């Protein structure tokens, strides 16, 4: 019996069990923190019916709380429901990659279920088990948006199990933007109206005007922008957000990081240089220490009310909307600023856009997968399916620190945030509108999910850091990065990188 | 003049004391904070400046919101004590040999052999992570206590050797020679005569072994997965994108406690003149 | 009778060699391969890694930076440690309390304390800048400017490891014989002269040992940099260990980082031997 048949058989059997048990036997699973169990192959009821006692499941995940806490929570639930022993190992982000990679490369079967950054799929894909057809057909998976299904796929096979969906978007203090005094002040200083920044030039301008000013009346100065700038702490993602609109031309296909045909790095082209110059210029509007903020610092800075604007993952927004946050319901969301001039690499010119070009950055988020060498794949996929079942996800979405962000159509409904979480209408609507705009948007940018992505990104971050500290100009820094990237591609093998990058370009050029 | 000198002396001591205590005070205060207390500027005083909360401390003792440090605590204790004990025994023996006898291996003499021991401390742990990983995997000792103890013995023996060689070198050979003249073999001399007098040196060596062992992060991190977790690793695992300042502070206080007791013990030994001649 | 000498040396030596032999040989072998994320395994590429290393400016800069950092912090630790030991040696109230207090920082876990220090140095949320403001020095850009970041790392190291020097030197002071001091008092020597002619020379051997061990340990500096600055701003606090970590664990270039490590081992061994010889000549008149 192949694993596939066993799994399919198992799923069918449980569904049959469930149906025969009858809906009347619906147990109350609300003690597990969910509102109500949504029927399906991986609902609480279905998983409860399974018996894995005597078996052990090993899971590696991120540190608590981001993804680490829901992993542990659902692991405990799974343990109670099925009788399996579930071990969870938590690893800080900076070390997660090698903790997963070293056992893979040395043939050590250490973990059955893995949680990792989705951009590492390029490195991990040889070691992952394909999600069986049966699991792809469960309602939870079917309702994942096409964008995120694409992110989970590699060379036509679904290797990641989607349980989170991320993007970068602009967050700003709606109370300041809608404050007549602030609007007047802005008009006085710049001659134009205070609007949500539609371009990065506007963003930098707004940040500068409101920098080092006490606009929330608490006696301490506030600042314009909080960005992730610490070299080895995800700064590369913030940088990509800043560059995307200048460098991703909607009419020029075939690659964003590289020209897919020639595999020439594009990181030192004028679009990228311009983005870096803007990033460096924004440093003047950052809080003290803001030029080496890690993600955690950015979350505290925007979420704690110090900075006017920020952009990156959901965390800062969620932090701001916590029950006890002083700026609850005073924030709003918008798509990332765009650019009125975009570099066209085929013509070698800057093209002007009357409506600013936007390039939504569908940034990496959390992914899960099952190791192909695992001997517990049935349990592993059941766990993941359970983790991502509709009931659990709706509950997880409500707890900001969990790090689970919207990825199903149902998650883009503002009513959910208004009723379940008590968000006010403006916050909820701008949030879900932004999510929909990014998800359905054209001209999307995805991460460089190729083997060795870590090297490419750390080289990029080092170059950006040099420009930020003034050690080099933006052009010089990025020229250095381009040269390093060429060397890395040579070392890994042009064809391997191109083959992998083709996956990413396919997502972008769809 | 004399009063000025005294005043300066006390001032210096107090300044340094303040420098030492400062992080600890901050840690204690922060361990009772939540996210709101952290943003908006540094605060020190609970109830006066912020609402204290026990969530940082609670997150250390189980529950889904945090980790349970009791098991890692115990594991750290076991591994550190065993590793140090073995390293001490082997290291002291080797040190005595290097101090009292001459060895020659080609051009290499005592001094070189001692240097060989000490040079094991030069290699940064990262470098050795993968080969140790492979070695333990081959021996089937990955993610086990014995496997870690093995690594710790290699890591701590150089310290034991260094301290004890210096110590034995400062103990006059007269004692040994008397014992030999009485007909004792070197081994008996060592066990019956020298060792009982070696307590001061052993205390210093043991202390360093315990400190370096207890506080190791990197080897424990690389060689363990799920079965065995050591304390520093489980603490660092709290480091997520929102750095939980409160949990980390609480954890730091808890992890330093046993060694602080050790500091006390060592100081008593020092003051009673017990360490006279411990380090030449 | 002298056969028995091997009973002493061999158990420890053999155990040590057994444990580290494989890792050492493995590291040597892998440095001649190109093991990385897409080429796992031991192929043979000859000395390519070493050739690359030779031209790797970032590596050599890291080494230079490390030397400055290490020598600087160790000298500071030595001076401060010695001063502290002298201060609480005798004639001071509550000296037992101070001695215990001064020992405690060494007992903490470096990686955990680094996280605490990061919160202390945090320019927006940490307690240090407000205090500096209050006493008139003004807030400093601790982690966002090169010079300050370097200083921040040094401060953390000094806090953590001065107790090490302090302990060794205090133990040494406590074991000094009394006669030379009595002689000095009779001669009418003041505290400074006593120190220079009596105390310091007698502490020569201990000082050398302590400094050498501290140099070895300090040069492995990685965790503090990792947590506090990530080698930044730019590369201004990147030490060799940290760079090896980036190349090895982040970029996953196992082969190249092995060659970096071995070169580092050789350079350090040579440097330390030279320093040891120089120090012994300088500070120890007759070695007993």
Could you explain how this protein is built, in words?
The complex is a heterotrimer of chains A (510), B (280) and C (288). Chain A is globular. Chain A contains 22 helices and 17 strands. Chain A has 510 residues and is α/β, with parallel strands linked by helices. The relative contact order of chain A is 0.15. Helices cover 45% and strands 14% of the residues of chain A. Chain B is mainly α. Chain B is 70% helix and 1% strand. Chain B contains 13 helices and 2 strands. In chain B, strands 1-2 form a two-stranded antiparallel sheet. In chain B, a hairpin with a 2-residue loop joins strand 1 and strand 2 (108-109). With 288 residues, chain C is mainly α. Chain C contains 13 helices and no strands. The longest helix of chain C is centred in the N-terminal third of the chain and has 31 residues, at 57-87. The model of chain C has no long low-confidence stretch (mean pLDDT 86). Chains in contact: A-B, A-C, B-C. At the B-C interface, helix 1, helix 4, helix 5, helix 6 and helix 7 of B face helix 1, helix 3, helix 4, helix 5 and helix 7 of C. Chain B: It holds the Pfam family BPD_transp_1. Chain B: It is found in: Cell membrane. Chain B: It comes from Tabrizicola soli.
């Amino acid at each position: 019996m192949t694993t596939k048949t066993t799994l399919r058989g198992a799923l069918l059997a449980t569904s049959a069990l469930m149906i025969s048990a009858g809906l009347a036997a619906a147990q109350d699973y609300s003690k597990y923190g969910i509102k109500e169990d949504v029927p399906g192959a991986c609902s609480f009821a279905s998983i409860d019916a399974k018996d894995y006692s005597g078996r052990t499941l090993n899971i590696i995940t991120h540190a608590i709380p981001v993804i680490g806490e829901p992993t542990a929570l659902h692991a405990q639930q799974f343990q109670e429901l099925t009788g399996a022993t579930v071990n969870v190992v938590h690893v800080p982000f900076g070390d997660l990659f090698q903790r997963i990679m070293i056992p893979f490369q040395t043939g050590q079967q250490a973990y059955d279920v893995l949680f990792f950054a989705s951009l590492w799929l390029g490195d991990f894909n040889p070691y992952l088990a394909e999600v069986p057809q049966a699991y792809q057909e469960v309602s939870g998976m079917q309702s994942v948006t096409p964008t995120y299904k694409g992110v989970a796929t590699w060379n036509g096979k679904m290797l990641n199990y989607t349980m989170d969906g991320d993007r970068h978007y602009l967050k700003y203090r709606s109370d300041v933007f809608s404050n007549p005094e602030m609007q007047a002040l802005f008009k006085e200083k710049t001659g134009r109206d205070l609007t949500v920044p539609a371009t990065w030039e506007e963003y930098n301008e707004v940040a500068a005007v409101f920098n080092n000013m006490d606009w929330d009346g608490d006696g301490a100065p506030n600042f314009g922008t909080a960005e992730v700038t610490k070299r080895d702490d995800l700064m590369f993602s913030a940088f990509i957000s800043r560059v995307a609109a200048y460098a991703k031309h909607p009419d020029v296909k075939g690659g964003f990081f590289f020209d897919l045909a020639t595999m020439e790095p594009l990181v030192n082209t004028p679009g990228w240089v311009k983005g870096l110059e803007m990033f460096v210029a924004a440093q003047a509007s950052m809080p003290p220490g803001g030029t080496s903020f890690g993600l955690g610092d950015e979350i505290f800075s925007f979420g704690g009310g110090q900075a006017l604007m920020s952009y990156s993952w959901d965390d800062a927004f969620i932090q701001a909307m916590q029950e006890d946050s002083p700026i609850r319901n005073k924030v709003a969301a918008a798509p990332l600023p765009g650019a009125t001039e975009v570099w066209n690499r085929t013509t070698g010119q800057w093209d002007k856009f009357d409506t600013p070009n936007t390039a939504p950055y569908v940034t990496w988020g959390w992914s899960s997968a099952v190791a192909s060498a695992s001997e517990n794949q049935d349990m592993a996929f059941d766990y993941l399916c359970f983790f991502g079942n509709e009931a659990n996800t709706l509950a997880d979405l409500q707890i900001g620190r969990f790090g689970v962000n919207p990825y199903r159509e149902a998650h883009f409904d503002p009513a959910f945030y208004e009723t379940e979480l008590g968000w006010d209408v403006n916050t909820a609507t701008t949030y879900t509108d932004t999510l929909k705009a990014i998800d359905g948007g054209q001209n999307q940018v995805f991460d460089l999910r190729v083997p060795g992505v870590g090297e490419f990104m750390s080289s990029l971050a080092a170059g950006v850091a040099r420009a930020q500290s003034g050690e080099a100009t933006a052009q010089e820094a990025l020229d250095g990065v381009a040269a390093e990237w060429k060397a890395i591609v040579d070392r890994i093998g042009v064809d391997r990188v191109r083959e992998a990058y083709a996956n990413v370009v396919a997502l972008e050029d769809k | 003049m004399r009063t000025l000198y005294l005043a300066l002396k006390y001032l210096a001591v107090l300044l340094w004391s303040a420098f030492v205590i400062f992080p600890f005070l901050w840690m204690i205060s922060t361990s009772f904070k939540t996210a709101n207390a952290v943003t908006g500027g540094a605060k020190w005083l609970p109830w006066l400046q912020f609402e204290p909360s026990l969530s940082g401390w609670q997150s250390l003792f189980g529950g889904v919101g945090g980790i349970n440090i009791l098991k890692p605590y115990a594991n750290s204790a076991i591994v550190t004590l065993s590793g140090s004990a073995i390293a001490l025994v082997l290291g002291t023996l080797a040190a005595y040999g290097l101090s009292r006898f001459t060895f020659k291996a080609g051009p290499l003499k005592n001094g070189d052999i001692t240097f060989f021991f000490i040079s094991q401390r030069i290699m940064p742990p990262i470098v050795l992570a993968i080969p140790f990983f492979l070695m333990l995997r081959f021996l089937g000792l990955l993610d086990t206590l014995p496997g870690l103890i093995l690594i710790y013995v290699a890591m701590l023996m150089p310290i034991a050797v260094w301290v004890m060689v210096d110590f034995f070198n400062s103990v006059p050979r007269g004692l040994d020679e008397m014992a030999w003249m009485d007909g004792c073999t070197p081994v008996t001399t060592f066990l019956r005569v020298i060792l009982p007098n070696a307590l001061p040196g052993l205390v210093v060596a043991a202390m360093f072994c315990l400190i370096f062992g207890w506080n190791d992060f990197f080897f424990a991190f690389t060689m363990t997965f799920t079965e065995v977790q050591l304390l520093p690793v489980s603490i660092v695992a709290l480091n997520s994108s929102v750095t939980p300042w409160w949990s980390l502070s609480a954890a730091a206080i808890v992890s330093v406690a046993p060694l602080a007791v050790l500091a006390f013990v060592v100081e008593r030994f020092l003051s009673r003149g017990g360490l006279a001649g411990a380090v030449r | 009778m002298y056969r028995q000498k091997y009973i002493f040396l061999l158990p420890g030596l053999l155990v040590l060699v057994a444990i580290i032999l494989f890792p050492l040989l493995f590291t040597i072998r892998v440095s001649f391969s190109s093991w990385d994320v897409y080429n796992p395994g031991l192929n043979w590429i000859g000395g390519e890694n070493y050739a690359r290393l030779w031209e790797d400016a970032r590596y050599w800069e890291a080494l230079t930076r490390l030397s400055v950092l290490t020598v600087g912090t160790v000298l500071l630790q030595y001076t401060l440690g010695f001063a502290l030991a002298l201060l609480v040696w005798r004639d001071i109230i509550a000296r037992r309390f101070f001695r215990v207090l001064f020992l405690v920082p060494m007992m903490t876990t470096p990686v955990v304390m680094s996280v605490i220090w990061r919160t202390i140095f945090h320019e927006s949320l940490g307690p240090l800048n407000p205090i500096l403001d209050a006493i008139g020095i003004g807030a400093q850009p601790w982690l966002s400017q090169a010079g300050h970041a370097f200083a921040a790392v040094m401060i953390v190291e000094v806090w953590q490891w001065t107790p090490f020097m302090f302990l060794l030197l205090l133990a040494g002071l406590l074991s000094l014989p009394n006669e030379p001091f009595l002689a000095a008092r009779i001669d009418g020597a003041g505290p400074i002269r006593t120190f220079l002619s009596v105390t310091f020379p007698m502490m020569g051997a201990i000082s050398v040992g302590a400094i050498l061990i501290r140099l070895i340990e300090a040069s492995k500096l990685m965790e503090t940099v990792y947590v506090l600055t990530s080698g930044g701003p730019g590369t201004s606090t990147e030490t060799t260990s940290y760079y090896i970590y980036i190349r090895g664990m982040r970029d996953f270039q196992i082969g190249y980082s092995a060659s970096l490590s071995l070169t580092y081992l050789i350079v350090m061994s040579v440097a330390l031997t030279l320093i040891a010889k120089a120090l012994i000549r300088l500070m120890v008149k007759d070695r007993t």
